[in-house]
Amino acid sequence: MAEITEDSVRKALTGIRAPGGGDVVSAGLIAAVAVKDRMVQVTLEIDDPAKADAYESVRRDVEKTVAAMSGVLNATAVLTAEAPKGGAQKPAAPAKKKGSDQIHHIVAVASGKGGVGKSTTAVNIALALRRLGLTVGMLDADIYGPSQPRMLGISGSRPNSPDGKTLEPLESFGIKVMSIGFLVAEDQPVVWRGPMVMGALQQMLDDVSWGELDVLIVDMPPGTGDAQLTMSQNVPLAGAVIVSTPQDIALLDARKGLNMFRKVDVPVLGIIENMSMYVCPNCGHEAHIFGHGGAKLEAEKLGTPFLGEIPLEIEIRETADGGNPIVVSKPDSPHAAAYMAVAEKVRDALGAGGGRAAPRFVTE
Predict the structure, then answer these.
(1) For the chain, which residues make up each domain, given as ranges?
(2) For residue 270, how far is the Cα from the chain centroid?
(3) Cα 18 from chain centroid?
(4) At a CB cut-off of 8 Å and minimum separation 6, what does 5 contact?
(5) Contact call for residues 105 and 347 (beta carbons, < 8 A)
(6) DSSP letters of 135-190?
(7) Which of 154, 159, 183, 227 is most buried by its number of CB atoms within 10 A?
(8) pLDDT tens track of the chain, all 364 residues?
(9) What kind of architecture, by CATH, is found in domain 6-81?
(10) All residues at 6 or more sequence positions from 16 whose CB lies less than 8 Å from its CB, including other chains
C-alpha cells in the first residue's frame, strides 16, 4: 500500500480542472492538505464567498478523487473564501442553517459486528430517553440495512418536503425519525459506494428539520467503515454507546469499534451486553447461551463504563419486529426496566459531559 502524503494527494488532484483554466493545484486553489491515520482533509480557498456555489462541483470532484486513492479510509474537502481585495467588500453570504443546529446531544449506538441487536437496542434506548422526559430523535444511519421504520411501526411512510429543500422527519411514539428506509422500497437494495453513503448521511442530518432536540440517537451500521468515520469526523458526537453480546468473537469486534471512536476523540459513554442471558418462561432457569459477563469484564479492561445487561428474550424481538418496541408496549416489564436503567446512565453521562466539536485534522 502506497504511503499517503500531502505530495501524493496534490499529485492526484492535478487531474481536476479549475474553472479559470489549468488544474486545481497549479491554479492555487488547494490551500491545505492534512493527512492523519489514512484520513485526508483538503481545503480549497477561493477569492470571493459569492463564488462558492460555482465551485461546489470542484469540491465534490476533489473529495471523490482523494477518496479513490489507494489506502485512503476517508476524505473530506471543504471550501473557504476571502473577501475580494480592493474596493468595497461584498457582504459574506449568511451561513446555511443546518437541521442539526438545535440538537443538543448526538449519540451514536454502534457495534463492531452485525447480529448483536444494535438496532433493537438503539430504538429502545431512544424510547426510554423519551420516557425520561427528553425530546428525542432517531437517525437510522444503517444505509444498507435500515430497520428503524419497521421497528417504529412506520414502514411505507414517506417524509414531506414543504420547501423542496429540507425534509420533515416522521414521528412515532413521540420521537422524530429519519431513515433511508423511507425513501427506498423495503426489499430494494441500496447499492452505493462510500462517497454516496457519506453524502446521504450528511443530508439526513443537515437537510432534515429536526427542530430542537435534547438527544438524537444515531443507529449506526455495524463495523468501522465509511459511515462511522463520516459521523465521527463531520458530526459533533457527544458520545458513542457500544453494543455487544458476551461471546468472545463479538467482544473482539466491539473492542475495535470502541478504539475507533477513541482514535477520533469521540467519548465512549459505555458498553451494553445484549443477549446476556435467557430465562426459561416455564421453569425460570437462567441459561447463558452466548456466555455471560464478557462485556462487563471488557469494559473494566478498557476503562469505560458498563451500562447494563439486556436479556435474550423473545418478547423483545417480537415487539421490535411488530413495530411496537417493548419499552412502550410493555413499559412495566423487567425487560423495559433494563432499557430504562441504561437510558438513565446515558442521560446522566450526557449531562456531565456536554457536546463536542467535530474533530479537526492536524498534521504530526
Answers:
(1) 6-81, 99-353
(2) 16
(3) 33
(4) 35
(5) no
(6) -EEEEE--SSS--HHHHTT-TT-----TTSSSBPPEEETTEEEEEGGGTS-TT---
(7) 227
(8) 678 898 999 999 999 998 878 898 988 889 888 887 777 888 888 877 677 777 888 888 998 999 889 888 778 787 776 544 444 444 444 455 677 788 999 999 988 777 888 999 999 999 999 999 999 999 998 888 889 999 999 998 888 888 878 889 999 999 999 998 887 777 776 766 666 777 788 888 888 999 999 999 999 988 766 667 777 777 889 999 999 888 766 777 778 888 888 888 889 999 999 888 776 677 766 776 666 677 788 888 888 999 999 988 889 999 999 999 999 999 999 999 999 999 999 999 998 444 444 443 333 3
(9) 2-Layer Sandwich (3.30)
(10) 23, 24, 58, 61, 62, 65
Tell me if residue 38 falls in helix, strand or coil: coil
Q: What type of residue sits at position 50?
A: A
Please identify which residue in the block is written with the cell numbers 452505493.
192
Nearest to 232 by CA among 208, 265, 258: 265
Provide CATH code, domain 99-353. 3.40.50.300
Place of cell 430504538: 123
**Lookup result for grid cell 444515531:** 218
